[in-house]
Amino acid sequence: MGINLFIFGVMLLFGQAGVAQSVPPDAVAKTDLWLNVQLRWDTSLQSQAFQFWVNQQKQLGGRIIVDHVQSRGAELYLDPVLQNTLAQWSQDQGVLTFEPGESLVTANYPKSAEIRAKQVGFAKAYPTLVRNFNLGASEKGQPILASRITSQKNLDTKPKFKYIANMHGDEIVGRELLILFMGYLVKNYGKNQRITRLLDGVDLWLVPTMNPDGADMRSRFNAKGKDLNRSFPDFTTNDTNNTPAGRPAEVMAIMKFQAMMPFKLSANFHGGAEVVNYPWDTMPGDHPEKIKVIQASQAYADRVDYFKSPEFPLGIVNGYAWYEVDGGMQDWSWYWHKDLQLTIELSQEKWPPYEKVSEYFKQNVQAMVELVERVLP
């Protein structure tokens, strides 16, 4: 066992041996600390006016998160105190606002505890391929479980890859895909030459749910109302101290995990759009690994037919060119750990009917395999 795995081994081990034009009060989705509003506009001038309004409110100290900007609209999370301000602005600009409705289709999705049980079940059934590690506890005390899936060959020298999903609790498809991916890998090892080579050659880690509390609450945020993808250190802001202390529990867990594991490549799954997002997110300009990151992004998008759309003709987009994200995991991962990371937006619907999940997996599984294969020697 290498030094990193020895240090990591002190962490709790699971399953080793099996164990309208205005915003009326009813047109926003309320969380504990945020309002969630969808905006739709018709012109580029309205889009520009929206960005101006957001920047103005931020300069005044308003809490606003902009997400999934497209040519005809965006998703917005804002402090409830800004509700009337947004109502007046949207009425003045003729911008439609409405509450997202897709979160109602959730009945068949498992709870976070059921997801962990599936991970433990794989470790029981395939003890030589799967070991589960508790990376830490969520704000409500739920384990954040990582599954290490690899054969016993050359454990100390294999390149490392990780997939993380569900850091936004209301973006659920990625969580389900990683559970299906686990089953696909372990059931095909020793039978499928390609999968056997993959698990013999790569130290693969899967974190199906980074935000189990948010998933159970059907909320973007963690149990304390924090957006985990705005809570990492950011070299372009004042938050440049790369230490976990004082951050959301879930972010602390991933930061400590990353510090112990020299990953070569990673991806994190989101929802609300269908596109591969590549760095930088937090600033304009080319990433130092521009060619590599664009090639990896394009290869994934080329494998998933539905990614290419009028909004994203190539199926890929530069993060900052799409919309700025400060405090994101993707840029932090490379800047401090040289772990190149992609953000893969899997589905326009954040909570599609559960029976659609298998189809999403069918359309993504080969791209998922090929992305992992990029770290093979």
| CATH topology call of the largest domain | Aminopeptidase
Question: What distance separates the N and C termini?
Answer: 20 Å
Count of discrete domains: 2
Give the tally of β-strands.
14
Biggest sheet: strands, sense, closure?
Answer: 9 strands, mixed
Q: Treating each run of at least 4 consecutive H or I residues as one helix, how many helices?
A: 12
- What proportion of the residues is helical, as a percent range? 25-40%
Task: Tell me the name of the CATH homologous superfamily of the largest domain.
Answer: Zn peptidases
* CATH level 1 class label of the largest domain: Alpha Beta
Q: Average the pLDDT over all residues and give the rounded result.
A: 90
Radius of gyration: 20 Å
Please name the CATH architecture of the largest domain: 3-Layer(aba) Sandwich
- What sequence of helices (H) and strands (E) makes up the elements? HEEEHEEHEHEEEHHEHHEEHEHHEH
Class from secondary-structure proportions:
alpha/beta
Largest sheet: spatial strand order: 1-7-8-10-9-11-14-12-13
Low-confidence stretches: 1-31
